[in-house]
Amino acid sequence: MNTKTTVISQAELDAQFAWCDKIAAYWQQEGRTPTAYVETYGCQQNEADSEKLRGYLTQSGYSIVQEAEGADVVVMNTCAIREHAEQRVFGNLGALTHTKRRHPAQKIFLCGCMAGETKVSDRIKHSYPHVDGVFSTHHLWQFPEILYNVLTKKKRQFYVVDEPGSIAEGIPQVRDSQLKAWVSIMYGCNNFCTYCIVPYVRGRERSRQPEDILRECRELIENGAKDITLLGQNVNSYGKDLPGGMDFADLLSAIAQIPGEFLIRFMTSHPRDAGKKLFDTMAKYPKIAKQLHLPFQSGSTRVLKAMNRHYDREKYLEAVNYAKSVMPELVLTSDVIVGFPGETEEEFEETISLIQEVHYDSLFTFIFSPRTGTPAASMEDPTPKEEKNRRFDKLCAVQNAISEEIHEGYVGKTMRCLVDGKDKDMLTARTEGGRLVRFAGCDSLIGTFQNLTITGSTTWSLSGILADAN
Fold it and tell me: Helix, strand or coil for residue 303?
């Protein structure tokens, strides 16, 4: 793995913009406006990357459409975290043979985390001849060059060399929403959890300069953004590779002091690095949402060590208890893996007891998925699939009961919520803690903060009315 960080120069980025101009000229000669479709799999970081892909495509003269059928360019931005996600991508990629048969000039690209796996790029090369280009996350900044080469050279392009992890400022973005925004503050990961492929496909940690992040946040707020989520594989490591001593808590503090009406969120935090300074900063500033996603993965200290998580059960609980002590209203969510290789029934029950002790608002739950190239993929795993499924079902039942109980506790409370859209004939909003609320109201309320009185609840959502409608 190449661990050096490369900052893409303005000259290199200008060269990509020149490719955009050449692509636009190509289509002007064709006498029509081309169309492009970008499909995103996986995490919020992939969503943020797709916004850059759409930005490049728009600058190259493409109109963004909502389906692959008939599009001149189709880009599949992929996730490699779990086997099911990969198989879904391969299935959908195979289905594109039919759209390309109906539209032979269609150009198809695969990018994202899967593209960083040698076994994937080799499989595409030999078994998916209808795919015109493959490029890893390290090469996203070169997408215009790759696209132009496909259009003009009529030759498949593979940009999957283990390049240094890069940071490229100034790539145009077409965001899905003016109201909510993703802001990447860093890329890559240094933790090397034994089950995780991310460090191998996204590279080592590298932080953006704070002034670039602050400038982006200011521009978003000035343009109407009300909910900004800071992104990184481990946001708590922000700044460790930069001179100057600014850490993640300092960055949060600086953003929270920008004028305007907005909330800041962030993900994902790593329990090893999430400490009192972070929690005190969250508690201090009203603009920092009292919401924390803090993955614990397992309640067993032995399993956590086998996962290479760098904390134990006691340290995790210490962090959670302190966070709750300074933010009593904190909404806490987490990730958990069931069936890690060698997990015993007793160790699984330790996970259940941790969930019951912490009382999470919600969990993202997963059955262990071996990833080729990670240490866990070669660990002895004697637990049958059926047993893992049983444990998974039990865990979900426990958490669903807790979520339902917590949501019932909201009934009768009045909460400040951001009205963010519609669901059929109802408006939707989010509490500061990210809980979904449905209520009746005028479309003109979308994009505003409103006080909602909660009148009902389910396991997964809330219902309410405008507080002044009582």
Answer: helix
- Say yes or no: 370 and 328 in one domain: yes
ω before 33 within 30° of 0 (cis)? no
Summarised one tens digit per residue, pLDDT across range 171-189 is 999 998 899 999 999 999 9
Cα separations (Å) of 208 from 188, 205, 403, 410? 11, 10, 36, 38
Instruction: Give the C-alpha separation, 362 to 420, whole Å.
Output: 21
Residue-wise burial string across 326-364, b where 16 or more C-beta atoms lie within 10 A, e elsewhere: ebeebbbbbebbbbbbebeeebbebbbebbeebebbbbe
Instruction: Please tell me the pTM assigned to this model.
Output: 0.94
Question: Residue 124 is part of which domain span?
Answer: 5-166
Q: Are 220 and 183 in contact (CB under 8 A)?
A: yes
Same domain assignment for residues 261 and 366: yes
How far lies 235's CA from each of 21, 205, 265, 326, in Å?
35, 10, 11, 20
* DSSP state, residue 376: G
Are 443 and 404 contained in the same domain? no
